[in-house]
Amino acid sequence: MTKRRQLKFTMIRSLVAICIALLVATLLILISAGGDTFQEKLQATGEALKQMLVGPLFRMSQKKGTSFEAKRLADILAAMIPTIFTGLSVCVMFSANQFNLGAEGGIMLGAFASAMTAIYLPMPAGVHAVVAVLVGGAAVALIMLLPALLKTKLNVSEMVCSLMLNYIIMYVIKFLMNTYLADKSRGQIMSYAFQETANIPPIVNNTVFSGAKLTWGFVIAILAVILCGLFMYRSRWGYTIRMIGINQDFAKYSGMKVGAVIVLAQVVGGFLAGAGGGIEMLGRYTSFSWSALPGYGWTGLTIAILAGNNPYMVPFAAFFMAYLSKGCDLMATYAKVPAQLIDIIQGVIFLFFAAEQFLSKYRQKLVVKSAKEEIARANLQKEG
Amino acid sequence: MPDGNSAARDEYVVQMKKITKVYSNGVAANQEVDFNLHRGEIHALMGENGAGKSTLMKMLFGLEQPTSGEIVVNGEVLHLTSPSVAISHGIGMVHQHFMLVPSLSVAENMVLGMVPQKSGLFIDKAKAIEITKEYSERFNLHVEPEAKVMDIPVGMKQKVEILKALVRGAKILIMDEPTAVLTSQETAELFVELKNLKKQGYTIVFISHKLNEIMEITDRLTIMRRGRSMGVYNTKDVTKEEISRLMVGRDVVLSVQKDKANPGETVLRVRDLEYVNEWNKKMLDKISFDVRRGEILGIAGVEGNGQKELVDMLFNFNTPNSGTATVNNVSILGLPQQKIRELGVSLVPEDRMIYGIAAGASIEENVISDRSADKRFNKGPLFNMKAIHDEADRLIREYTVLCKSRRQHVGMLSGGNIQKVVVAREFSSNPVLILADQPTRGIDVGATEFIRKKLVELSRSGIAVLLVSADLNEVMELSDSLIVMHNGRIAAYFEDTAGLTDEMMGEYMLGLKEQSKEEVRRVCHDEKTPA
Questions:
Q1: Do B408 and B465 reside in the same domain of the chain?
Q2: Which of A2, A242, A257 sits opposite B404 (nearest CB)?
Q3: From first to last of its 384 residues, what are the pLDDT tens digits of chain A?
Q4: H or E segment to which residue B172 belongs
Q5: Domain coverage including residue B292
Q6: β-pair partners for A14
């Protein structure tokens, strides 16, 4: 199969999965929809689906009809910023067959480290934000050495290690905030305000999007996608990461430095998650107040799976997830459907992607056919 | 146990008709194989590793499904889709590597999956022990029901395996190289037990390539070679020599033109290499040999006689207990693969799907795997894509890899073309030494011929080639000189392959004969003339 056909296959598979997921969602909405008669239920379901599928971009009102709304688009794009970073992070780590689940804690630690830099290290405007984000990335890159080295040196499962690490990170940050760093003059646990110099400014004047916070972070995220794509597909390190992911024995036999590259993949993945956390923090907030894991890491996991670990597909998957999330919010607000439904839809999508067997029987048939032809040819040659 | 209903039903308890099996990687493991079993016989299934006997038995046990052909058991055409289906039709298998839970007791292992219960909730241990004792006595297979499996000797583990099959109602027992792990005493004991089972009407398939055992215990034998059946014989009507010829004889003779070798200085020098595996079996017993520039040294032998271990040592997939190996006087034992490759060593690995390729990557990505850090393929931090495309296209052309483009996934190619991708990479890295381990196994005639010609061509250009092959035709045709391995030792060294016959080779390969130490030592060329 050529790459292009492979891509087509992946896209068809994604599409089928999404369709089935939506079908299941529709059924669930129908069951949970209000109304006494089936007719009413059906109508409520239609209303809910419309909110979910069209609502994220268009405002629907009885008086004005359906109209495009730029603010909602900007909201979706803004929501994509952290999840693009976590998606890329997971892509890189999973490409090396390292099931590191540390993007979740990573984005929190990145946000925290960037926030501290923004508060306590005075610097000129422009430079300050860049340094703060880099510090966030570096902090997580460093902490990812933990699961990576434990894996390569002692063969500790990176999955378990990174998963636990998420909670360690969260509680250490909570401890530091509660005991040392909180601004005592505020009514809740939050840090002092970031210095103005560390702000990541919005792309265009806020009034255009009626207050939606679409910052330059979005542009940086898209740049990160391109850089990450180049790294994975156009550099020897990304190449080695991918080969290790496809067949580690082969990589070792070919003379690749398997251990070092497994560490590299997790360090790069950590950096991406950390930088994403920093950009989200400095772009959206004015002080650090996260007291729990933000969930972007888990979304990044779904995104990476949807994107088939291909960095270039990450923005599309991130858009899909942000759109879906927004749609479900609207549905919950206007159509009285529980927002938890999105979890079910996510679950169904997961189900279809995790099962590698899905649609892969077709491939087996092709192989058998070509092998048979070869035998026939060989026999012919023997006789002839 | 004839039931008298129909004579035809009693003649064969199992018939496998025209079985063909093509694996998903394109390897044709069985081609139109016929195999049948009389009720109450011990039937040997013989052949070298890779001849297709395990594949055939896996299909009878439901672990694999035939691509075509049919399996008839007790006169009934069956689709054996899983081992549980096979077991329900009275077919049991005793695996070479035991499938037992070490931390459970013998009795618990016996009833695994069919546990007797007490009040629907608890395991009835007493009942399990009772069942174990009952079967143990009935078949005269002594085991200790309450001992943990990890504490009992290998011979008893095997008895547990046999009993496990019998408890589940097996009437046909497939035994995969049962004596490979046993001491000679345990083997003798096993044979008594098998004869006993036979007397009680059980049918036994005995997979082995140990000639003495086959002659002692079996009634009939089927010989396989390269995925095909070479016929069925009554054991008492054939001699060891005939079996050896059928097993290791040659089939298609492809002749490769080659000039006489003109060997230069020694490239690979191996001295007293010794390796004892994790089950304390000596796999390499002080192996010494030299491979010189410009010659092909072949290693012949039935698989499992130390060849795999030897290659593993030379490419640092394993560490020997003692001994040395040098390439141009630099020690290679324990070096990382990258360093070994830097010294100019190439390896065409035995298992191409595991080591040779990344099936899910493109041809291009596969051919640059050993040279991705080369200056000529990198421009700053990025790849020089044009140079890489050119390299891939050049290799595809030069090695006539049949594919749609360099972007095609290697896993989608046929076996022969996959192997061409492997050799394209390994042969084009400017090697001083090529280790070719089963370079043409299971691939089509065209690719086979191509690879063999390339090997000869490369050796004549001054590269040292070590060719390990279970294909007698291949080692005899290609090698300039030849060693035969048996039981971890070099059984024979032939300085010149001309005049060697299959019969002579077979006798050394199956351990009927062995050369003297002095004769074998001739392969260490620098020691020939005493100082």
A1: yes
A2: A2
A3: 445 666 676 677 777 777 877 788 788 888 877 777 888 888 888 888 888 888 888 887 767 677 788 888 888 999 999 999 999 999 999 999 999 999 999 999 999 999 999 999 999 988 999 999 999 999 999 999 999 999 999 999 999 999 999 999 999 999 999 999 988 888 888 999 999 898 888 887 666 666 667 889 999 999 999 999 999 999 999 999 999 999 999 999 999 999 999 999 999 999 999 999 999 999 999 999 999 999 999 999 989 988 889 999 999 999 988 988 888 888 877 776 776 776 776 677 667 655 544 454 455 555 555 555 555 555 545 444
A4: strand B172-176
A5: 266-527
A6: none
Q: Report the alpha-carbon distance of residue B219 to residue B231 in Å, rounded.
A: 14
Nearest-Cα distance to chain B for A195, in Å, is 36
Report the gap between the CA of A370 and the closest CA in chain B (Å).
7
Q: Is B314 within 8 Å of B325 (Cβ atoms)?
A: yes
The domain boundary residue, chosen from B115, B135, B170: B170
Residue B256 placed within a domain:
no
Residues from chain B contacting residue A381 (CB–CB below 8 Å): 445-446
Q: Please state, as a whole number, how many other Cβ atoms lie within 10 Å of the Cβ of residue B384.
A: 17
d(CA B184, CA B110): 26
- 3-state SS assignment for residue B28: strand
Sequence letter at residue B84: S
**Can you tell me the distance from the alpha carbon of A26 to that of A45, in angstroms, rounded to the nearest whole number?**
7
The ipTM, to two decimals, is 0.80
- Same domain for B436 and B345: yes
Whether residues B337 and B416 share a domain: the answer is yes
Looking at the structure of chain B, the number of domains it has is 3
> Are B396 and B270 in the same domain?
yes
Indicate if B143 and B275 belong to the same structural domain: no
Chain position carrying tokens 């595809």: B396
For B144, phi and psi rounded to 5 degrees?
Answer: -105, 105
Beta strands, E only, B25-153: 28-37, 42-46, 68-73, 76-78, 91-94, 117-118, 122-123
Within 13 Å and on the Cβ side, how many CA atoms surround A209? 20
CB B266 within 8 A of CB B525: yes
The CATH number given to whatever domain includes residue B205 is: 3.40.50.300
Name the residue facing B416 among A240, A247, A374 (closest C-beta): A374
CA end-to-end distance (rounded Å), chain B? 72
Using the structure block, give the residue that is written with the tokens 């997971």: A90
Residue B257 forms part of a structural domain: no
Residues B465 and B388 in one domain: yes
Q: Which of B435, B350, B333, B310 is nearest to A249 (CA)?
A: B350
Amino acid in position A5: R
φ/ψ of residue A179, rounded to 5: -90, -40
Q: Are the CB atoms for B275 and B305 separated by under 8 Å?
A: no
User: Is residue B218, in this structure, part of any structural domain at all?
Assistant: yes
* CA gap B316, A59 in Å, rounded: 66
Place of tokens 């946000």: A111
For residues B378 and B316, state if they share a domain.
yes
- Whether residue B259 is contained in a domain is answered as no
- Quote the CA–CA distance of B293 and B264 in Å, as a whole number: 5
* Cα(A366)–Cα(A335) distance, integer angstroms: 48
Residues whose CB falls within 8 Å of the CB of residue A44, separated by 6 or more in sequence, listed in order:
A33, A34, A35, A335, A336
Q: Which domains does chain A have, with CATH numbers?
A: 69-326 (1.10.3470.10)
Q: Phi, psi at residue B440, to the nearest 5°?
A: -125, 20
With contact defined as beta carbons under 8 Å apart, do B518 and B490 qualify? no
Which residues of chain A neighbour B357 with C-beta distances below 8 Å? 247, 250
CA distance B434 to B454: 12
The residue of A4, A233, A246, A366 whose CB has the most chain B CBs within 10 angstroms, and thus the best one to mutate to test that interface, is A246
Q: Does B27 touch chain A (CB under 8 A)?
A: yes
* Phi, psi angles (nearest 5°) of residue B273: -75, 125
Residues B132 and B154 in one domain: yes
